[in-house]
TrEMBL record:
Residues annotated as domain Thiaminase-2/PQQC: 23-214
Listed name of the protein: Thiaminase II
Origin organism lineage: Bacteria, Pseudomonadati, Pseudomonadota, Alphaproteobacteria, Hyphomicrobiales
Gene Ontology CC terms: cytosol
Top-level taxon of the source organism: Bacteria
Species: Lichenibacterium minor
Amino acid sequence: MPAFSADAWSRNLALYDATLSMPFNAELAEGRLPLEAFRHYIVQDAKYLIAFGQALAVAAAKSDDPDGIVLFAGAAREAVVVERGLHEDYFGRFGLDAATVAARPMSPACHHYTSFLLATAFREPLPVVAAALLPCFWVYREVGTFIHGRAAPANPYRAWIDTYAGDDFAAAVDAMIATTDALAAAASPAELQAMHAAFTRAMQLEWMFWDSAHRRERWPA
């Protein structure tokens, strides 16, 4: 029987391929992504990462395994501290400040994704929470690595590309995959089914998040 991660990735391969080829990522790789699209993305991502960090912290609280506590709590810290540094660098480059970012509301896609993660974190058992969190790690690594091999050194989004194609991030993703697989190995059939549903939903929301940035999505009313 394949590990949960291999099975989940195989089931959602078409969704990953669609994410990889979508206009936002294709244009980012070529360095021709419109600045306003990236501004929209980075503002929404800053808001998303707060909720992502909160969901990881809840996962740490639900873990009975010391290694799991360290993994989830450490990932929560990285999401808030390390990636915030990347965002603040881009805020400075692209004429954004903390007040402007705070004043902008979450886009519908960001609101949907963060609400899903927080509801899952508080309501579901740890294996399902881990499965919901995993795509954000894994998809970013795969997209970052793919783009890194194609982007020119002068790409204006090089700092973003280098972060998600880096060895440190790759190691964090591997640790998250291993932890999720271990949780899945001990899960009940019902929990395993819920894990697959949560993984797929998060994969869908990853696609929606980038698509919404490319369209500079706003609330319709």
